[in-house]
Design brief:
It holds the Pfam family DUF6597. InterPro entries: AraC_XylS_family_regulators (IPR050204), DUF6597 (IPR046532), Homeodomain-like_sf (IPR009057), HTH_AraC (IPR018060). There is one protein chain. This protein is of the alpha+beta class and 289 residues long. The protein is 40% helix and 17% strand. The chain has two domains: 133 residues, no CATH class; 107 residues, Orthogonal Bundle (Arc Repressor Mutant, subunit A). The strands form two sheets. The chain has a six-stranded antiparallel beta sheet. Strands 3-6 form a two-stranded antiparallel ribbon. α8 crosses α10 and α8 crosses α11. The longest helix is centred in the C-terminal third of the chain and has 19 residues. The radius of gyration is 19 Å and the shape is globular. 36% of the residues are buried.
Length: 289
Amino acid sequence: MCAMLTGMGTTGLGQTRHAATTSEYGILGGRGADFRLDRVPAAADLADLVERHWLVSWRLPAGRRGSVTLLPHPCVNLVFDRGVVAVAGAGGERFTYEYEGAGRVFGVKFRPGGFLPFLAGPVSRLTGRSFPLATLWGAADSRRFADDLAASDDLDDLVAVAERHLRAHWPQPDPEVAVVGRIVHALLHDRSVRRVDDVSARFGVSPRSLQRLFQRYVGVSPKWVLQRYRLHEAAARLAEGTAGTWAEVAADLGYFDQSHFIRDFTRAVGMTPVAYATACAQGRAPVSA
């Protein structure tokens, strides 16, 4: 349920200090007409660790149900849903969220690696899992956070509440988060990066050290991150009808052969690229978890 806006600022490396570390994609089948997705960047003083805030809202007629299927990002989210704030770990398989009536889900999306300072332990233990925020912040602070969010009227209020509570629990700086962010930015944007060996050469980190860094800070491997971002883009292009030939898609996304791309896409999305593109063109919900 996430898309992305970036913060601003510059570093001595010639790239934006708060450059994007997550893709704009992840909703499979395109955006439905029965829900709304809003997102805003984090405040500048929080943007080293937080990428953005997001809000999904809906209002359906009585008796009608909706659903949305997501292919998760390599990020931890704080998610406020049905009166509870939960920590949703990075990565994992696609999942479907069903909804009816009127409602909303609000989230805080951390940068890949950005949640470790809050956790003070390896993020890999969260991968594919979720648990109540009370486990980290305690019952009283977590309940107060949830109550304040529940009393918020709109997205601006939700963001203000979330950022106030985050500041109250803000951790000590960890310079490794910025290192991870620069690597993830390259995985997201640089098409010359096709393999983990390319990352190792670019940043002067051995493959073994890189794997350990990502398992601790991101919760998934650099190969997983690279593949997931490429598949996000492939799904978006197929949904929009702008994919081109399979050979062109595979090459554009850094795959060495078309069959490898088709295999990865089918495993992640649950449909072949052809079937997915056809379902999107016909306006059918193409996938479910």
